[in-house]
Structure formats: C-alpha cells, structure tokens
Design brief:
Layout lengths: L1 E4 L10 E4 L9 E10 L2 H8 L17 E9 L11 E5 L9 E5 L3 E3 L6 H4 L4 H13 L6 E4 L5 H12 L3 E6 L4 H6 L3 E4 L4 H8 L6 E4 L5 H7 L7 E3 L3 H7 L12 H13 L6 E6 L3 H9 L6 E5 L1
Parallel strand pairs: 8-9, 8-11, 9-10, 11-12, 13-14
Antiparallel strand pairs: 1-2, 3-4, 3-6, 3-14, 4-5, 5-7
Helix pairs in contact: 3-4
C-alpha cells in the first residue's frame, strides 16, 4: 500500500508517500481500506518536532488519526464487523494517512447513511476535542458560553455542541466567519483589541463558561470576565490553565466508540456541521499541510487515498 512517511523532523517537505507493507488484522482488530482521512494542526506540530517532549516520533513515522473507509479484513474474535462495511474511526498509531489502516475493532463504528466520506474521515480529532471542551464546562440552558476561534475545527464543533445544550454561545472570530456563526445560532464577536468590551455588550448578564481552542490569553480574558476557573477549558494553553486552575480536558479523556458514533449521527442528521474546506489526493499531502499552515481555512482539509 501507499502511506505517508517522514524520516526526520521538519516542514512539509519531509513528507513522502511510499510503498509499505500492507497491515494485517490483529486478533480483536480490523483492517480498513481508507477512503478519507483528515489532517490536523497537531500532526504538523508533531512532524516539526515542536511536540517532541510530549509526543516524540520514532522514524520512519506515519501521520494521521481520523479515517473513514470500508472494512477490508477482520481479525480473530471480531464479531461486529464484516468485510465491505462502511466505517469510521481513529488510530493511536499515527497511521491513518494511508491506503490501509489496522486498528482495534473498538476504535471503529459504522458510518451512518448520508454521511459523506469526507466528513466521516474528519470525525475524530477536532469533533472529539470540541466534545471534550463542552463536557468539561458543562453548559446549561440559559447560560452564556464564550468560545475562542469559534469558526475553527475544534471551536466550531464546541460552539455548536454548546448551542445544542441550550446555552447562548458567543463565538470569537474574524468578520469573514460571522455569517457562518449566525447561521448556526451563535452570536459572533470580532476577536482582537477591545474584544472584552464587545463580549460584555453581547452578554450583559455575564459569562458563565469559556472554551479556549486558540490560546494566547483567552483564559486570562475569562478571568477578567468573571468566569470561574473550573468553568473554563483549554485544549492548547496548558501554562495558563495550570496557573489559573482551569481545565485541560481533551479528546483522549472522553472519546470512545459510543461518543464517536453519537457525533457521527449528529453530523449525519445535520445537527452538527463539519465543513470541508478542501480535498487532496494522498500524493499531494505536502500541499495539503501547506494550506493548513495558513490557519485561515474554515473547515477540514481531507486527504483521499
């Protein structure tokens, strides 16, 4: 099969698509023929070496966590899946950006009817992190929640899920994303200088919770707005969270097949919008990550092996 590999830390140019041995289905596992796999900022950070202390790479290294495709083979002891079934899931082995991926059967769920391959292949990293944020701050009906980078991959999901929980959601984003936020029932507020005053104007009764998906001072802003540290969660600003006593609940603390299936059903029904900004063939993985590095794309960038 063909798979993404890199032999050293660096920019997008270290990425190659190589012929490698096909994986086999381990006992209790399945092999999936990948039809779509999304790319994420965390993968770029790992590839650059920026996350070496937390998540060191061994070389040659693969990439990718999210995937969707059809079951190719099942291992001994697997009763819930059969070859040919459409599924989506995740791998913890940085191996999703490939034509085939081998994972434990408990890390895949059936793809709901009506869910596109591109969206199905984007349902783990960002949606699970958004779900984790909302689980951590536990918004209730009638409360007001502020979400930073509310049109981004994680923030967009968190904002929508908080809205589904009945909260009023204030989404911090550039003006080019305000219409999208309004369409999803989210109150748009422009980020940047003066944002604290704009938030207070949008939430005259105060702010109950804050979700930070961008970093760069948003937890400190939450304190200024009177949000209790326990009602704030960041998936990126661990220094500020530790200093202030805020939460840092991430996808690994909440995800399982049940949660993934729930999120996939919300997306299939239209209750959760997972925009797809662009698709690239696997061979163009470098170009895909260069586009991701712009950090101004609304929606997922997806590789199609």
């Amino acid at each position: 099969m063909k798979a993404v590999r890199f032999d050293s830390y660096g920019d997008e140019d270290v990425l190659e698509v190589r012929d490698v041995d096909d994986p086999v289905a381990a006992p209790g596992g399945v092999v999936v023929r990948v039809k779509a796999t999304s790319i994420n900022p965390g993968e770029a950070a790992i590839r650059s070496g920026a996350m070496h202390e937390m998540w060191p790479s061994t070389f040659p290294s693969g990439q990718g966590s999210d995937f969707a495709g059809t079951v190719e083979a099942v291992g001994d002891g697997v009763a819930g899946f059969a070859p040919g079934e459409p599924v989506l899931g995740w791998t913890d082995e940085r191996s999703a950006q490939a034509e085939l991926v081998s994972v434990p059967a408990e890390q895949v769920v059936r793809k709901p009817d009506g869910l596109s391959w591109e969206v199905a292949g984007s349902m783990f990293v960002a949606p699970a992190a958004g779900y984790a944020c909302v689980t951590a701050v536990a918004p209730r009906s009638g409360e007001t929640v502020v979400v930073s980078s509310a049109a981004g991959g994680v923030g967009g999901v968190a904002a929508q899920l908080a809205r589904l929980a009945g909260a009023t959601v204030i989404g911090l984003a550039g003006e080019g994303n305000h219409d999208w936020l309004r369409e999803h029932g989210i109150v748009p507020v422009t980020y940047g200088e003066g944002q604290d005053a704009r938030i207070r104007e949008a939430a005259p009764q105060g702010v109950d919770a804050l979700i930070d998906t961008h970093g760069g001072g948003y937890l400190d802003l939450g304190v200024e707005l009177g949000v209790a540290p326990g009602r704030m969660n960041s998936v990126i600003d661990f220094e500020a969270a530790g200093r202030l006593g805020a939460q840092t609940v991430g996808s690994s603390q909440v995800i399982d097949a049940g949660v993934l299936g729930h999120l996939a059903r919300l997306a299939a029904s239209g209750e959760l919008d997972i925009p797809v900004a662009a698709t690239y063939p696997l061979a163009d993985v470098r170009a895909a990550y260069r586009r991701l590095a712009d950090r101004h794309t609304r929606g997922k960038i997806v590789l199609l092996p």
